[in-house]
Structure formats: structure tokens, C-alpha cells
Amino acid sequence: MGILEKIAEIEAEMARTQRNKATMGHLGLLKARLAKLRRELITPKGGGGATGEGFDVAKTGDARIGFVGFPSVGKSTLLSNLAGVYSEVAAYEFTTLTTVPGVIRYKGAKIQLLDLPGIIEGAKDGKGRGRQVIAVARTCSLILIVLDVLKPLQHKKIIERELEGFGIRLNKKPPNIAFRKKDKGGINLTATCAQSQLDLDTVKTILSEYKIHNADVTLRADSTADDLIDVIEGNRSFIPCIYVLNKIDQISIPELDVIYKIPHCVPISAHHKWNFDDLLEKIWEYLNLVRIYTKPKGQLPDYESPVVLKNGQSSVEDFCNNLHKAIMKEFKYALVWGSSVKHNPQKVGKEHTLDDEDVIQIVKKI
Length: 366
Known about the structure:
Elements: H1 3-16, H2 24-42, E1 63-69, H3 75-83, E2 100-106, E3 109-115, H4 130-137, E4 142-148, H5 152-165, E5 168-170, E6 177-181, E7 187-191, H6 200-209, E8 215-219, H7 225-233, E9 237-239, E10 241-246, H8 253-260, E11 265-267, H9 276-287, E12 289-294, E13 302-310, H10 316-323, H11 327-330, E14 331-337, E15 346-348, E16 358-364
């Protein structure tokens, strides 16, 4: 029996099983088996295997955005109009067969755009070029799921299922679960809040499937079996996502008002270049980048080319390492102007966290 047949069998058994307290452990075991089989499917035994031609795109710029969607929803037109890159555009399906990269500059940041070939249903099971497409999607800072406004929901569900099958979690935070293997002492479960789904027996059942019999597990939020499996697998990518509803020139104004209320959604028309400003603003918000301007001693700050850092990795030390690894060896202190300090300028050390649009001057040891 092949992996796909085993996966289908487990999914059928999960669909048959009633959900209640008595079956929680059994469902947890099935989910763990399913996750292991999916991992085997993504990384086949016997090494890495050949990558698809045109899929190894070098990462450039400060962030990387992947356009994911079904064939002929307007991904190539959107990329052409945003970045001025000519990706083969036609009115029939499957015109893009390799990854097409483009770059835009927005608010001083250099953002790489990747037009990925159209996903088809069953991509996570290795159909089409799906495996390589989704492998590239895992390396992106943000995913834009491009949907046809006339048939958005069925496409949205299929694409989400395909990405979930590859360990990509959209618009989710990593589970607040601490997991540590140990040599002896059995399974020790600590919960800091009430749990509606996981108990010690369910946790033991899931861990035994991974042949783990000694571990400390701390649940800091109301968690599910899927959350625990994600933590044990440890290869999940948590990526923000925007749903881009294309071809709004084909719907009425009242329908457009309804679409605007959907979370994480931006309606556009790639062909007519409608609502691109809103899309770029939303992209900037979801990328969560921090721009830092440099100020050489005795000169005005350079507002043309900021150093762009990720939010959460924006300390003075991160800034120095972004410029050059050797700067920290000679670092004495930094002078900072902006919203992250009380006084302008203020003398700070390497641990200080910088805010968006701060100005910094590095003072070296003499």
C-alpha cells in the first residue's frame, strides 16, 4: 500500500469517527500518523531529489512575497503591472511554468515578488509541479493568495488545504507549547490554563506514535492535538497571508462592499490597475518591517536608502550585523533619534530596540 492510499485510509477513518471525549485519544493518534505520512510525502526517503527547473530563485531584497493561486486568476498580470516584469500572460490556463521573479521598491524597502506556477488540486500529494511551488512558498515572508472574485471560496479552501498539507500555517501564531525531550521520568504534562481538548492520555498517545516516552510538555494556552503535533514535527512555517480578490471589474458595487468586510482580503483589478495603493499598504502592514536611517557624523541623515530590518529583530546589534559582522567588534555606543528613545539624541547600547524610521549613528571604540 502506497503513502497516498494510507493517507486516504486514515482520513476516511477520521471522518467516520465521532468527536467526543472518549475518542479524543484515538483521533490524536490518527492525526499524528497523518502528519508523519505527509512528512514522508514532502521529503521522500533517499535524499533530496532533483528540484524543478527554474524553481531555485536567489533571495534578494528585504522581503519576499509569493503569489499563489490557481492557473489563470491573474497572478502574472498583477506581477507585470506591479513590478513591470513581463511574465508570459495569456487568457488560457498554465501559461507560467517556472517561477518568475520581480522586484519593487516601496517606502524605501526592496521587496522581491515571485509569480509561482498555478497550483492544482492534489499539489501536496505530488501532482503537477505542486511540491516545488509550495516549497518555494515556504521561503516567503508573505503569501498573496490570488483568487478569482467570481469563484473565490472553493479555490480558497483548496489552496489552504494544499498549503496546510505542506506544513504552512496561514495568519497563525506558533502554538504556545513548550516541549522538551528527556532521558527518563515519563511524560510530564503541565497546563497553565484550562484545556478543552488535550489531557495526559491524549498527549501520551500522540507522543507514543513518535516513539517519545520521556518528555516535559507545558501547555500555556488552550491547545488542540494539531498544535501539539506541529510543535513535535518542528518543521511548520507560520506565514502571514493576504487574499487578493482579482477581476473586481466583473462584479457590482454592493458585492464589492461585502468583500471589503472579509478579514485579510483586498479586492483589486490587475488588468485595470484598480486598488493597487490599498494592496501595497496592506502588504507593508503584514510584512511588519522596520526602516532605520543612518547618519554619518557631522552630516544629515540619509533618508534615501534605509536599512530594513524585521520587526522583533530590530536591536542595535541586529542593525550592525545587517551592515557588516565586523562592526560589533569596534562598537562603543550608538546615538539614536526617533520614537524608540525619550531624548533626541539618546546614547544607547547594543540591546536597545529600534522603532520604524529611527535615525542612528554608530560610535566606534578609538
